[in-house]
Amino acid sequence: MILTVLANAIVTGIIVYLIQKKIENSFAKKMEEFKSSLQYSNFEQQTKFARIHEKRTETLETLHQKFALFANTCEKMIHAKDIEQQANVMGKLIDFWQYFLANRLFIPDSLEAEIGKTFGDAVMLIGSASATFYPSDKQTSHLVFLDELNEQTRNIEKLYKSVAEPSAK
Question: pTM for the full model?
């Protein structure tokens, strides 16, 4: 009888031990799968962030270049007092805007609003500059226009830097 009880206790102990090990192994396996899944998700997110950040930086760099080209062309138009260049100036601004529209997916909403405002301001500035060409004594208006245009260029630069150098914010 004692032998039977002892045998039953040993068998029960072995069964409990095996069940416990199976549960531990199952838990460890699920934990490893979960860790692996988290690592993969983290890698995926980092890859997406890096790609989007790279594209944002590239987009803002190109926008800045296009706006600077517009500003430079506009400045030449004013210094040469050549209203005939207005179509060329508008062409540069439209090129800037079309690039922006084609790539706005990569621009944060806050920056998108600022760039939209910059574009609107530039259109208004061109209109005011062309209106001052006819009375040729409006050199002061031209200089104010150039100052405002330079301010818009600096705004685009700030936007670019805020994305290109996120730690500098």
Answer: 0.57
